[in-house]
Automatic annotation (TrEMBL):
Name of the protein: Zinc-ribbon domain-containing protein
NAD as UniProt keyword: no
Alphabetical keyword list: Membrane, Transmembrane, Transmembrane helix
Transmembrane annotation, as ranges: 83-103, 143-168, 180-204, 210-229, 241-259
Record Pfam families: DUF6574 (PF20214), Zn_Ribbon_1 (PF13240)
Domain Zinc-ribbon: 5-26
Gene source species: Apilactobacillus waqarii
Length: 264
């Protein structure tokens, strides 16, 4: 029996293979109705796996844009896909949630270890109470983190539209989010680094992560500011007052979200 090869990448295929194990292409085997092969060889056609290809191209273009924005945040240019910015902010939320979950797991593990060392039903009961408190608090922090990311994006977009009012400039939501993300993608990268530190070093990495988190907050505030006043601005509103209102609103929303998260 002759060997069969993928028409796309040339990889050798096993008998009856429906997909290429190397490139993932779908293999369609055309057989005549009577079951006989033309010239004794089974014809093979390829139907590209469009979803996989699109996802691959999106990821490739996204990371190219992401790295470009990290190297030159203010010079990253227009993103080739309108969803790149949203992807960055979703990634930021995911890293925040994963980090909180990991910290919760480490703390609960330490409580279990301490409870086992003490022994007894009382120690076990106290450990269970503390673990429930930690898990409940972690859930509130996760909610707070996600809501603050949403508020951060919404306020930046709203005050950018306010800043250019009367100039004739149209503030496209996705285009603006891409720009805001480009200015703050360093924070996403630092969030990923903090998660890796927690994964490798556990609770020992917390002091270092708190220091890195300070840079994340500073960078986000700078990006928030720059995205609002960058470029053309309205003659009706002075940049300083627009920024003052924007940061004041961010502080007010911070406390509102914090209180709502505690009572959730």
């Amino acid at each position: 029996m002759s060997a069969k090869f993928c028409p796309k990448c040339g990889n050798e295929l096993k008998e009856g293979a429906k997909f290429c194990p190397k490139c993932g292409a779908q293999i369609v085997q055309n057989v005549q109705p009577n079951g006989a092969n033309t010239n004794g060889v089974q014809n093979q056609n390829i139907i590209p796996n469009q979803s996989a290809e699109q996802a691959k191209n999106y990821a490739k273009d996204f990371f190219k844009w992401f790295w470009s924005s990290v190297k030159h945040p203010s010079l990253s240019g227009k993103a080739s896909n309108k969803y790149f910015g949203l992807t960055s902010f979703v990634a930021s939320a995911v890293f925040a949630i994963l980090s909180i979950m990991l910290i919760t797991s480490k703390i609960n593990g330490a409580i279990d270890l301490a409870s086992s060392g003490l022994g007894g039903d009382t120690a076990s009961s106290l450990a269970s109470i503390f673990q429930n408190l930690v898990s409940d608090g972690a859930g509130k922090v996760e909610l707070f983190s996600v809501l603050m990311i949403v508020a951060f994006v919404a306020l930046a977009y709203g005050f950018r539209a306010f800043a250019v009012a009367g100039t004739g400039e149209k503030t496209d939501f996705f285009e603006f989010i891409n720009k805001l993300a480009a200015y703050t993608n360093i924070s996403v990268m630092l969030s990923a680094i903090m998660f890796l530190f927690l994964l490798i070093g556990g609770l020992i990495a917390l002091p270092l992560n708190m220091f890195i988190f300070l840079f994340v907050v500073i960078n986000d505030l700078i990006g928030f500011t720059y995205a609002i006043i960058d470029g053309q601005n309205s003659n009706k509103f002075d940049k300083l007052y627009v920024l003052l209102l924007a940061h004041l609103s961010l502080i007010i929303v911070f406390f509102i979200v914090f209180i709502k998260s505690l009572t959730a």
